[in-house]
Design brief:
- Helix content is 31%, strand content 20%.
- It has nine helices and twelve strands.
- The protein folds into two domains: 139 residues, MM3350-like (Structural Genomics Hypothetical 15.5 Kd Protein In mrcA-pckA Intergenic Region, Chain A, Roll); 128 residues, no CATH class.
- Strands 5-4-3-6-7-1-2-8 form an eight-stranded mixed beta sheet.
- The protein is an alpha+beta fold.
- The radius of gyration is 21 Å and the shape is globular.
Length: 321
């Protein structure tokens, strides 16, 4: 999209390839997001359940999650290491997002505009769309056609079996409001309090009615933040309670939770090291659990942990390649 603008808002039209009438969405997301984070946004706006692998095809390159066993037959570049602003093509030039290598759902992504963020708007957000995405594991385009035929005909031999599998299905159902509510749960945390360490018995905050805010690191002048390379790590001190919160109450990646299960020696400070992308994902996982927590004490603890991680993130920026 011309010069890379990490603080800009990128607007995309996303359409599922091979389905008629079309299933599509229009979404806006910050250029600061990595491709791995953009994948999570697409899962929400389309209605997928994030059960399967994915990749982006942009030009001659492919981006996705690396194979944990080190075997990479697809030649994927790690999607956590690159931000949208660095790889998205110019307006009007499409690229592809593939979800579930079995059902092989291909999405055409059309960059429509690069915009300045609006002060009163939270991102990511969905602007429009039509029709519900297919159920997970339905069998790709052909399987989905068979599924709809059986669901729409009560006398079809497979109708009852399909009803028992997933229940009623309305192919025309879509709600921008519901999508944005789900985006709010997964990508926005609460207003920041002063960062502080968490104890097992914290006092509850008096501000019970918190306003949602965007879960994007605030964009600050480069001179106020320390530039580091994408693979460099930064220290984060986590006490036992904070480690327990991450391991027991979030869906953080195993590469993070396994690290936190290694207890430091008694004479050592419990300092752990993470890349900025890892902290980005971790703060998103913690914020999502804080949004869902029904226990007020747990909610407060997760909020405080989110604040502390964001405070660390605010000290650094990714250096230009």
């Amino acid at each position: 999209m011309g010069a890379a603008q990490s603080g800009a808002i990128y607007q995309f039209k996303v359409a599922l390839i091979g389905i008629t009438p079309p299933i599509w969405r229009r979404v806006q997301v910050t250029g600061d997001y990595t491709l791995a984070q953009f994948h999570r946004v697409l899962q929400v706006v389309m209605g997928w359940e994030n059960y399967h692998l994915y990749m982006f095809r942009i030009g001659s390159k492919r981006y996705g999650p690396p194979d944990p066993d080190g075997v990479d037959d697809l030649g994927l570049v790690d999607a956590k290491r690159l931000r949208l602003a660095a790889v998205v093509p110019s307006v009007g030039t499409t690229f592809t997002y593939v979800y579930d290598y079995g059902d092989d759902w291909e999405h055409e992504l059309l960059p429509e505009a690069t915009l300045m963020p609006e002060p009163a708007v939270t991102y990511p957000r969905c602007l429009a769309g039509e029709r519900r995405c297919p159920p997970e594991d339905v069998g790709g385009i052909g399987g989905y056609a068979d599924y709809l035929e059986a669901m729409f005909d009560p006398n079809h031999a497979e109708h009852e079996k399909r009803m028992m599998w997933r229940g009623p299905f309305d192919a025309e159902e879509f709600s921008v409001e519901k999508v944005n509510q789900e985006l709010a749960k997964k990508f926005r945390s609460r207003p920041k309090a002063a960062p502080r360490s968490i104890t097992s018995t914290p006092k509850l905050s008096a501000s019970a009615n918190r306003l949602s805010k965007t879960f994007i690191r605030p964009i600050r002048p480069q001179g106020q933040r320390i530039p580091i390379t994408a693979d460099a790590t930064v220290p984060l001190e986590l006490n036992q309670r904070e480690r327990d919160l991450i391991v027991a109450h979030t869906f953080a990646d195993e590469s993070i939770t396994n690290r936190l299960r290694v207890f430091p020696q008694s004479e050592q400070r419990p300092v752990f090291h993470f890349t900025l992308d890892e902290l980005d994902e971790l703060v998103g996982d913690v914020a999502a659990e804080a949004n869902h927590a029904k226990n007020k004490v747990l909610q407060e603890q997760l909020d405080q942990l989110c604040d502390r991680i964001e405070a660390v993130l605010s000290r650094y920026t990714e250096a230009d390649a």
